[in-house]
Write a structure and sequence with these properties.
Number of helices: 9
Strand content: under 5%
Shape: globular
Oligomer: single chain
Strand order of the largest sheet: 1-2
Number of domains: 2
Structural class: mainly alpha
Helix content: 55-70%
Number of strands: 2
Distance between the termini: 56 Å
Order of helices and strands: EEHHHHHHHHH
Amino acid sequence: MASNGAATTLTGNLRHRIDSRNGNGIGNGNGKDGGKMTNKDFHSGDGGGHYYKGFRKASCMRWTVEDVAHVARYHWIPCVFAMGLLFFMGVEYTLRMVPPASPPFDLGFALTRPVHRVLSSWPELNTLLAALNTVFVGMQTTYILWSWLIEGRPRATISALFMFTCRGILGYSTQLPLPQGFLGSEMDFPVGNVSFFLFFSGHVAGSVIASLDMRRMRRWGMAWMFDFLNLLQAIRLLGTRGHYTIDLAVGVGAGILFDSLAGHYYEASQRKNIEDTKLAKTFA
């Protein structure tokens, strides 16, 4: 069992049990009832309601110390997140809320105070980094369009269209205040000190979309380079107070999410095209 532990689930499939009374499998769906509750397990109660008398058949009632040890060993990642849930529940329910008149607390801003001090006292460096960041945005855009127009793979482009449309809707729906100490630059994208949505970061999301496409094509070096540049970009955006930390974190998640949605859309459209072609040949 230990050798196959990583492939098992966290519920009834952790261990194969046999009911000693009737020889039917319990919890794995192999018994004569297929592991499902039948009508005999339900009985009418007062007021016409129903209740399940076979609570002892619940999966958790059959867990053993060995099962718990198995989960802790082979499924330690969910265990870590479970501890994180408990920890942040304690933090959330005991934390003092930020007053309405106070600026929001941002951990990323606190960690990048030295960067902010340097850039605020050295405008030329801020302009240079803004220009380099704009070049990086151009690299993202060029790669995404190249994958569609030259290589004929539209998934990354579809993902970017999904992402930027959703970003526009969310950014307009909740217009966050510009962070205090914002260091703008005419060289930053969008060029010209124009207004922009804070939530969420299109810079970060676009880089993630490009990086994921590079990994699909096994362009590992380019993917790692984009990830590294994306990290530097995030540090700069926090240092210039150009985005809140949550904007960047959601940008990463948005890139992954919309890449997945674009993949589902593209695969579904491909299947439909194949079915339409077969149907056309049938009636030809």
